[in-house]
Amino acid sequence: MGDIRRRGVVALGMTALVAPLTLALGAGPAQAAGSCTTQAGPYQKQVEKFLGRPVDGKQSTTDCRAIQAFQNKHGITPNIGYAGPVTWGVMDLMNKQKAVGSNPNKDHKCPTNKGRIACVNLTLQISWIQDGSRLVYGPVPVRTGRDGYETRTGLKKIYWRHINHVSTIYNVPMPYSQFFDGGQAFHSVGVSMWNPPGSHGCVNMTTATAKKYWSLLKTGDDVFVYGRKPGT
Questions:
Q1: In this predicted structure, which of 16-20, 58-62, 67-71, 227-231 has the lowest mean pLDDT?
Q2: 141 exposed, middle or buried (CB, 10 Å; 0-12, 13-18, 19+)?
């Protein structure tokens, strides 16, 4: 691929590390940075249960610190220990991903007549590689396009791979890039897979997952993207 085409690819919605989502809707109380709120959130009991805390719906200092640690780990802001909709949304997604188990294509939505294919379920924010009906790798959590930058759905093919790619729009590294739709690609990032609000269209992966996808896929392999990411 020539330099002009490469620049065109990058210009079509390349993923970058993006700022975490603030709780603009239903946000917690105003709080100083680093502090811990004493106010119970609307998802207090669900969050307590997820974190293995006593489920009483009441905020304690220990509850707040546990919630705050989870928020810090996944880049959720404001990180004041408030059990709000974004924090619970991340936890709920984790629960749904875990429930998938080792049968990610049980809904039979990803084609089984294409041979080796990488599947992306936007609704559950997971991806896997299969060969016919045989699971080759995964499922693994991924981070796809946020609202306004959605990862496009449909059947696609990997058409360009660049192991040390750097976005010319956002000037950020995109290691193990495998492009499958315009500027949208599989690649690794250095943030949590549950870090809101999401990418600028690419399918973000951990370094370990991106390396595995790099070793298992090649130019010309199929990619199938379906569903709809929560919040888009």
A1: 16-20
A2: buried
Q: In whole angstroms, how far apart are CA 192 and each of 82, 90, 163, 184, 189?
A: 19, 11, 21, 19, 8
> Which pLDDT score is estimated for 33?
55
Q: Tokens for 230, please give them.
A: 């929560």
Say if residues 210 and 187 touch (Cβ distance below 8 Å): yes
DSSP H/E element including 94? helix 85-100
Element (H, E) at 187: strand 184-188
Q: Map tokens 């010309």 to a residue.
A: 220
Q: Does the active-site annotation cover 110?
A: no
How many helices and strands, by DSSP H and E, does the chain display? 5, 9
Report all structural domains of the chain as residue ranges with CATH numbers, in order of start.
Answer: 3-17+104-226 (2.40.440.10), 44-98 (no CATH)
126-136 pLDDT, tens per residue? 999 999 999 99
Does 74 participate in catalysis according to the annotation?
no
Q: Are 74 and 51 in contact (CB under 8 A)?
A: no
